[in-house]
Amino acid sequence: MLKLIGRSLAGLFLTETAQSALKEKARTRKAPPANDRADELAELHAQAQNIVTPERAELIRQAMEIRRAKQQILADLGDEDRRKLVAAAVKRLLKEGKAD
Length: 100
Hints:
- By secondary structure, the protein is mainly α.
- Helices cover 87% and strands 0% of the residues.
- The chain has helices at residues 2-13, 16-28, 34-51, 54-76, 79-99.
- It is flat, with a radius of gyration of 27 Å.
C-alpha cells in the first residue's frame, strides 16, 4: 500500500528523468546471491560460537530466569504496593543524586 502511495506521489512531484533514475537505483539494489548470503551467515554463526561460550550461555540463561521471577513478583503486586515501591525507588534515586 505504501509503495502504491509512494509511486503515485512520485508521479506527481518527480520528473520522468528522476523517476527513471529511482527505478534504476531500485533495480541495482537487488539482494546478494543466495550462496554469498549463506557464506556470510555461516561466518557470523561461527563468530557467535566463539563469543557465546557455554559458560556465558549458562550465565545468560540464569539471568533470564532471575528476570522472569522478578517480573512475576512485580506482576503480582497490588496497586497500593506498586505505588509504595515506586515512591521508595524515586526517593532512593533522588538521594543518590544528592550524594554526588
